[in-house]
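== Sequence entry ==
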Amino acid sequence: MNNTTGYESNTILDKLPQHLLQYIKPQNYEEYTPVNQAVWRYVMRKNVAYLSKVAHESYVEGLKKTGISIDNIPNMYGMNRILKDLGWAAVAVDGFIPPAAFMEFQAYNVLVIASDIRQLENIAYTPAPDIIHEGAGHAPIIANPEYAAYLRRFGEIGSKAISSAKDFELYEAVRHLSIIKEANGTPISEIESAEKHIAHLQDNMGEPSEMALIRNLHWWTVEYGLIGTLEQPKIYGAGLLSSIGESEWCMTDQVKKLPYSIEAARTSFDITKPQPQLFVTPDFAFLSQVLEDFANTMALRTGGLSGLQKLINSKELGTIELSTGLQVSGNFESLIAHDGKPIYFQTKGKSALAYREKELVGQDVNQHETGFGSPIGRLKGINIPIEEMSPRDLKAYKIYEGEIVSLDFTGGINVTGKIITGTRNLQGRIILITFENCKVTYKDKVLFQSNQELYNMAIGEEIVSAFHGPADLKSFDLLDHTLSKTKQTDLNSSLSELELYYQTIRDFRNGKNTIVSRNKVFQEVQEKFPTDWLLPIEIYELSIKSGDKQLAQKIKVHLEHLKLEQPKLGQLIDDGLALASNTMVATV
């Protein structure tokens, strides 16, 4: 284990770019409490018993392959060693991370796992990502090769989706809700206020960005997907696999089942409520087909004026690729258009030029510290674009080293100056022309002027691609992770005492302390913690196994009384009793 990074690396994790490492944190397995372990065990026993009937066959098989057990929260390092055989790895993170980073991890075959675990009061469902959701939901399904390929491909495409400023505001709001909902003692009013804020943001997002649309696809497949037929679907989405409430609810007629299609991208979701409808894919291969159809609508593949405009609206670091293959990365600030096409673009602040995702020598952020602007398109009155001109053509049009030229572009951009040199790509096509004493104008407006400073003009007839992030990851300092940390639950003295009771019963079940009186533990818990229901369930299970019918009956009476006082616990208690009585089978 690397003490600096806090995780144990392997050949897959070694390939992660530096900026993703900032999100990884140590799992700190020793910090899981006995109650945490009991919550994991309850959810897993119930899920495996129920999901073995309604989940895709890859789920139970995947639990075996990924080494996830029912009785113990998985250790990240153990999972990593097993996932390596599947071509994947896992890392621990602190709750929600930005969607683009989450998807980029997937592109590197790395499963992101929020290592915290939900509180007992949120055992049925929590909007916060936790190890039940990630470890027991996502991990088993990636054992299916077709689905794993889809997940990786989704990461590749999704990490290039262009966001909007409102996307980040919504992300921060959802992250805040997940933190306060899992924090001990958060007032209900604060949670309700956070939920209303999210609802307000969702209702006022405007035209959804690419990231918003692809997040919808992610939600309705990776998180809440069903597979098979509309009449007899199976569960594969991690949100359903990890929610003991919704995994049953989604199988009823109260949840509408729709055939999965690209229309899912336009179907929004509310993370705070059960989903009113779900999409059913016929098979995992169809997921990839829809993903590629969606990618065809993205600026990543369409480029053009709309792609450039999306980057400007996003106010985030992005890249355009010209038809010559030249890539310009930076924060795009403005454009000039003519006849529906961009004829000039301008970035603000540090920018860099690259070709095939590799930064061009001498074209880094130090060279372009205050921005980069250039015309694109054809020269006026000349049928052949500059990028297709042979050396002889260039010389004939005096686009040649040492020549003082005045280049008029279609749309009104003029570049005047002395040509110093040209940069060519591997195919010999010119992709950059460098001038001195240069002046760039649009009609009567000066866009750029210099005497000593060199001017680099990008060559390209059109923008063929526009996407989030830099072309070359090494061009920019991306180590800017400043997310708020999830709150740590403080254990008061009474809760610490309850934890000791949980540990005592856990030790007994594991054969570490077999002389303890389960009857006495139950009596003390009943007196001191009359509203706790999970530990009595665990003692009930042990009494059933040992044939202690008298103790089992006492616990059952207590739990029936608790159900009357707190009806919302009814289903949880009934399911726990059924599991303990072996009327629900839980085996891996």
